Sequence to fold (313 residues):
Amino acid sequence: MTALHRNALPQLGDALFVTDGGIETALIFNEGIELPEFAAFDLFRRPGGEGALRRYYGAYVRIAAQFRAGIILESATWRASADWGRKLGYNAVQLADANRQAIRLLEDIRREHRELSTVISGCIGPRGDGYQPTRVMSTDEAQGYHREQISLFRDTAADMVAAITMNYAEEAIGIARAARDAGMPVAISFTVETDGRLPSGQSLRAAIEQVDAETDGAPLHYMINCAHPTHFEHVLHADGDWRQRIRGLRANASKRSHAELDESADLDAGDPGQLAAEYRALREWLPRLAVVGGCCGTDDRHVAAIGDACCHA
Fold:
C-alpha cells in the first residue's frame, strides 16, 4: 500500500496521460449492469462486480500502452461518500471498506503494468446532484463533509484525489481545503451547462479564480467534465492565466444538455472521431492540456480516438 507519485505527479509535466471514459454510462448501457444511484462502487459487494471493473479499466490500460502514454486510474468512488452511501444502505464501516477496495483494485492493476506511468486517483463526487446544485453548502460545511473520504484515500495507495463534476465553487473550495489539510494533492473538475457556465450560473473563469483565491492555489490543476466541447469552447477564448490552470478534459459524447441527459432513456454515444477532432482543436485554447478522457456516453472507443488525435496534434 504505497503511493508512488504523491509528491511528484507526472501529469504535471509535458507527457500525455489518458484516463477512462464514462464509467457509469458504459457499465449501464454497454454491459447491462444496474447501478442504483449511479454508484459504480456498489459493484464491490456483488458477485463478479470487481471482475467487471477490472475488465473496464483493462481497456484503458491497453490504450495507454498503444500510445505510449501515461494513465490516470480514477477510482469507482464518485458516489462513495456518506450521504450516497446511506441511500444505498451502507454503514460507515462498509462504505470505508468500499473506498479502500476501489483503490486496492487500481493498485493491483498498476502492479500488473509496471511498464506504464500510472497514477492512482481517488475520485470524489458532489454531495448532491451532479447536474444541479440543489443543496449549496458553505465552504466549511463542504470541507467537513468531504474530509472523511479524503482521509480514507490518504491512508491508501492513492497518489491524489480528484473532485469530479463540481457544479458550484463553494464545494470545490471545501474539498481543496480538506485535501490540503490531509496532505493530498487534489484536482478540481467543473461541469458546465450548454452556455459554458457552471450550473450555479457562475462563469468557469470566475469559479477557477475564486477557488484559487480562497485556497491559496491549492488545486494541482483544474479539469472540465460532463459537457460537450461545443458547450464550453467559446468561453476558453477569454485571455488570462486561468486557462493555464486547466490540464484535464473529460467531455461528454453527447451534445445534449444536462436536463436532456437526465431524462434520456437511451445512450447518445455521439461520434468518437468528431469528439477526438474537437479535443485536438481545443489544444489551441488549453496549452497545458495533459489529461484526456471522457464522461457520459464515452467508452474506450472514444478515448482511443482522443488519444490518437492528441498524440498526433
The chain has a mean pLDDT of 95. The longest strand covers residues 118-124. Residues 16-311 form a domain with the TIM Barrel fold (CATH 3.20.20.330).
